[in-house]
């Protein structure tokens, strides 16, 4: 698969994950507003932008893991649990690193459960998005094959 095609796939995955990440991340704000909570607009906008960036970064991480680890696999040989694990890993990596850096550089005492819940929630969201991505990709019509590239593997021929 050509480099530009891989980069396009990574960019589309990042955009898709960013778009899905935002509404899911806003659920707690929606619940708070149902119970009379008031959230300033500037906080809501900042949180929305932050979550869109987080979703995009997690999407790039997932797509990169898939491009590297699954480069010799076809869509038919990719299993749903394997893809879900890649999605979970891609979604948990950045929050995990962020939490480790925060704990190492801060004097603030944050409960471990609060820190772990974000990583686990991101992992579940990433696994679900990855599984949905594979399901949608399998249902899509087959693209015309490039004559210069006879293999249908995700990253065939890439070094």
List keywords for this structure.
72% helix, 159 residues, mainly alpha
Summarize this, please?
The chain is mainly α and 159 residues long.
* Termini separation: 10 Å
Q: Count all strands and give the number.
A: 0
Described by the principal axes of the CA atoms, the overall outline is: globular
- Helix fraction, binned, reads over 70%
- Indicate the structural class: mainly alpha
What kind of assembly state do the chains in view correspond to?
Answer: single chain
- Could you give the order of the helices and strands? HHHHH
Radius of gyration: 18 Å
Biggest β-sheet description: none
**Count of spatially separate domains:** 1
Poorly predicted runs of 5 or more residues: none
Beta-strand content estimate: under 5%
What's the overall average pLDDT, rounded?
A: 84
Provide a count of the helices: 5
Structure commentary:
The protein has 159 residues and is mainly α. It has helices at residues 3-25, 27-34, 41-69, 80-105, 112-139. It has one domain (3-139). The longest helix has 29 residues, at 41-69.
